[in-house]
Amino acid sequence: MPRTTSPTTTDPTTDPSATSASDSAYVGSVPWEELVTSALLGTDRRPPTPHGDPVPATDAPAALLDAAALHTVRQRAGLLPAVPEARPEPAVPDPRPALPEAARHRLAHLLADRAAPSGGGRRGATPDLTELIPQWLAAANRQGFRAPAALLPPLLDAARARTDLRPQALAFAGPRGLWLAGLNPDWKFALRGSASGALQPDTKDPDAVRRLWEEGLFAERVALLDAVRAQDPPAGLALLATTWSAERAEDRLMFLDSLRSGLGGDDEPFLEQALSDRSRNVRATAAELLSALPASALAGRMADRAMSCVSPDRTGDVVSIAVEAPHECDAGMQRDGVAAVPPTGRGERSWWLGQLVEATPLGVWEERFGGRPAEEVVALPVADDWAGELHTAWCRAAMRQRNPRWARALLGRPSAPSASGPGTGSIAERSKLLAILDQGERASWVAEFIAAHGLSDAFQLLGVCTVPWAGPLGRAVVDALDIARDGGSYPWSFSGVMGLAERCLDPAEADRLEVLTAAQDEQEGASPGAGGYWSEAFQRLVSTLRLRAAMEAELMA
Amino acid sequence: MAPPTVGDMLLSHGGEPSPTGGPVARWSVEQVLALAPDDASRKAGTRLGAAGPWTGTGRDATGGVVWGLCRGSGSTPYRTVVDTTGPAYSCSCPSRKFPCKHALGLLLLRASDAAAFRPGEPADWASAWIEGRRGRAAERARASSGGDTARRPADPAAARKRAERRAERVTDGARELEQRLADLLRGGLAATDRSGYGLWEETAARMVDAQAPGLASRVRELGAITGSGPGWPVRLLEECGLLHLLDTAWLGRERLPEPLAATVRTRVGLPMSAEGAPVRDHWLVLAQYDTPDGKIVTRRIWLYGRDSGRTALLLSFGAAGRSPAQALPVGATVDAELTPYPGGGQLRAELGEQFGVTAPAGPPPGIAAADAPAAYGTALTEDPWLDGCPVTLRDVIPVPSKDGWQVADAHADSALPIAPAALSRPGLWKLVALSGGGPVTVFGEIGHRGFDPFAAWDPGEREEDGRTTGGAVVQLV
To answer: Do A305 and A366 sit in the same domain of this protein?
Structure first.
């Protein structure tokens, strides 16, 4: 232990009022380890022995303490710096510009709200800041700002707690965030998540691609295949084909999934071959991919089978659809991806029919029913209660083939009562069909739906609409909320839609909504106190919209 | 970009400074959140920190006083006024938290949305409170300018007698403590492992009776050392030795030079008052944090004087659940007078008159990591009981080590271990993030347990146009 000269010229340990100075001076010369032993065992049992002579028992404790004090102060005064450990590699510089001051404060505010424990209970009239973090991050990333270093820890903590934040949070955190996460095991997720982003392979160098494909870890290989496929679909397929037969079944399934992006006619021979794969899951996926290619041989075979089951019936006054479900699931059907065994509770013939229709190119039906457009085909009466089965299968086909014409036809008119087909009445199916339409059409369909049916079924449909909501859609939602309030129920019956509205309405609507925040007189038949809660809910909506507008403005500054 | 000058700030506040002082710094979100007495208030205040529930918001010309009406669940809105120079709060809500969520919300709104506060005349309900405060402040100023007589007790003879009586009781306490320490050493420290906290708690209670709270708290800390992991007997012996040193120093205080005697009085726990010559300077607020200490909360505010080069510590106390009243925004530079407390190497001071905010001062010049232990060694010559002394380290890099972290000199082969207390604080990761593996300037305390970082300066990054961002103080505790 390094020592300096005596730390203090006015050292009170030498104060004569304590114990005799000569004893302390003696004991001070005893090695520290011996003093500790004496203290631990007691001076009665083990008195300190300077120069071999024990100190008298009465003086021993004070002498020992004097020596301990002297030693302690001396040692503290003589501390030396430590030897440095290996320094971490510095973080890669982040060329993005720094956030504007106001935006930095805003982010601190949003993250602080997340970290504070939840107060629980009713939300009152104030915005839920945590729900705005995703939007803030998306906007900051669009503007290409660099995250402030001091806010990286709370940002990574937020992303650790909420997986849905991770992609945007990590993009925003940038190289410094990744560097920091490498030093803290709590933030390991950031390193995992970045495997596809940060370690993006260089697809320009064929040798590097080949080497990584042959030697890389599974996650790296999936990322590589996705990257190559995104740039040059045939090259991706060629890469996969080099090792295809040697891959494990689970891996083949994952790699096959990567072909979904950029799927085209060029993939057909490979997929056709995969129909004879050893693994049932690989076969099924290959069949599914082929059926999404209307020109493929598989699609043709399925169309032939489906057409033998579904045909026009002209016996009556009007044309109707006659259905004769398949009687068996032969080897050919099974090779083309038809699952022979239905789930419990389903008849096997209707199960097979559904799969055939689902894999049949939709254009086939327009031809089969005399060139009628999709709307009319969907509207044709179906014999023997097969309508539900057939329409559901068409819905699945429209989703798989991403066919907007059929999606539109199956959705039907938004104002029509949902039970009175044609098309589908299921909200889940409708929201999936809506996702196929372009965003403007989607928004106006949902707007009309809400205008006709109110909000009770709208939550899922609103979820597929683009943010911020287009004008007519926003107006429809606000009008429906206004009507719901007049209906006298409590606002929390609509909390899902309210929450969506706070995040998705165009902030410009705030002024128009202001009138709704006024407290209303209690109406007859209304739930007690509902008026106050509604005005509170509208206040929250308005203040959240204002906050979003402010957030956007700060980031544009 | 050049730092804003005082002139800029006047303009940005859009008005003449009020006759009572210069422009007042607008607090940031972090600074406001630091005022909250507990997490629940912080959360509730954050919820109110948006325009939604507020109406009638405004501020005075300096920006030091803000007010607004907050709509709650009742029919009449709450009336909230905050004077940030105190800070002082007034709210018509029934909450017993202090500051209440409405005051926090108002300050948060102010921090995030400056446009919501237009300078103007306060509403009647707000102006009554503001005038009342100004009146009292003026009275105090008159009283103190009238000479020291106002502070002196009415009867100096009686006061001296009281002080003597107290000193006698402390002396009795110190003798008793000496006896107990001697008994302890005679029987051996190993025995304390069996007797547990009871032994120390009882001794501490005796010291409270002897009106020596400083001795009492040291005794209580001894109780926490026993059995506290490998090497505890060594730590216990060290602390027993220092306690014995304090006892003997008290008993022989007449023979000590005055600064050391004052230090001993402070350490024993006698009430001291700030009585040194006031120092006026531009004080940079380095850090402000609260530590719970039994039933009370102790708030520490570290200041650095731009011209004097002095580091000063403001201490204030609050009952549990109430945050101490004194608050200064971290990163601001205030032109103010500080009155130091007596004692060798004493850093504690009392905040006197404030003359407004000025252009932010940069970091202190700082020292190399290798010189920090020597600074602590020098400080020990004036106060041997010191656990740490404040230093600013220049160009250090946080480095992970075997069982913790270090700050290593960027240019030399020396490092300081980070104190164990700092390892579990989120601030450590802020420091690491600010560094990014490069050198940073850090303010903190160097002591025998290592270096405890309190604040760091954002080194920023060089932008394309050649200027560097950053330079702001970031609090780490």
So the answer is: yes
What length is written for chain A?
557
Dump the DSSP string for A381-427: -BGGG-HHHHHHHHHHHHHHHT-HHHHHHHH--TTS-TTS-SS---H
A92 DSSP assignment: P
For residue B17, the model assigns a pLDDT of 33
Whether chain A has a CB inside 8 Å of the CB on B12: the answer is no
Please write the tens of the pLDDT for every residue from B236-256: 999 999 999 999 999 999 999
Task: For chain B, give the longest Cα–Cα distance.
Answer: 73
**What's chain B's average pLDDT?**
83
Structure tokens at A352: 């097979």
Residue-wise over A68-84: b if at least 16 C-beta within 10 A, else e?
bbbbbbbbbbbbebbeb
d(CA B106, CA B111): 9
Q: Strand, coil or helix: what is B330?
A: coil
Establish if B26 belongs to a structural domain.
Answer: yes
**Secondary structure of chain B: what % helix, strand, coil (to 5)?**
40, 25, 35
Report CB contact under 8 Å: A113, B43.
yes
- Residue where one domain finishes, among candidates B205, B234, B268: B268
**Cβ contact, residue pair A116, B46, below 8 Å:** yes
| The two three-digit tokens of residue A375, written as one number | 């709307």
Residues of chain A contacting B369 with CB distance shorter than 8 Å? 81
Nearest to B433 among A77, A80, A150 (CB): A150
CB-CB under 8 Å, A61 with B185: yes
Residue B186 sits in the same domain as residue B73: no
Q: Which 3 state secondary structure label does DSSP give A203?
A: coil
The residues with which A312 forms a beta bridge, in sequence order, are A321
Residue B426 contacts A where some CB pair is shorter than 8 Å? yes
Q: Assess B461–A contact: CB distance below 8 Å, yes or no.
A: yes
What pLDDT does A347 receive? 87
Q: Do residues B405 and B398 touch, judged by C-beta distance below 8 A?
A: yes
Residues B231 and B285 reside in one and the same domain: no
In this structure, the answer to whether residues B308 and B243 fall within a common structural domain is: no
- Reduced to 3 states (helix: H, G, I; strand: E, B; else coil), residue B335 is strand
Model confidence, pTM = 0.74
Say which residue, B27 or B424, is predicted with more confidence: B424
Can you tell me the ipTM of this complex? 0.78
* Nearest CA among B455, B430, B66, B452 for reference residue B285: B455
Residue B303, beta-bridge partner list: B285, B312
Cα A451 to chain centroid distance, Å, stands at: 31
B160: pLDDT strictly greater than 60: yes
Of B268, B287, B321, at which residue does a domain stop?
Answer: B268
Across chain A, which has 557 residues, the per-10-residue mean pLDDT values are 38 41 61 90 85 78 92 93 91 89 88 62 68 91 93 93 87 92 89 54 75 81 84 87 87 87 87 88 90 89 90 80 86 86 87 91 87 85 83 89 89 73 71 88 90 84 84 88 82 84 87 76 68 82 88 87
Q: Tell me, yes or no, whether B468 lies in a domain.
A: yes
Structure-token pair, residue A316: 């009556």
- The domain total for chain B is 4
d(CA B62, CA B14): 9
Please give the radius of gyration of chain A, using alpha carbons only, rounded to the nearest integer.
37
CB B36 within 8 A of CB B68: no
Write out B172-240 in H/E/C secondary structure.
Answer: HHHHHHHHHHHHHHHHCHHHHHHHCHHHHHHHHHHHHHCCCHHHHHHHHHHHHHCCCCCCHHHHHHHHH
Closest CA to B368 of B337, B329, B410: B410
The pLDDT assigned to B337 comes to 92
Considering the domain boundaries, does residue B237 fall inside one? yes
Report which residue type is found at B459.
P
Q: Does B413 contact A at CB distance below 8 Å?
A: yes
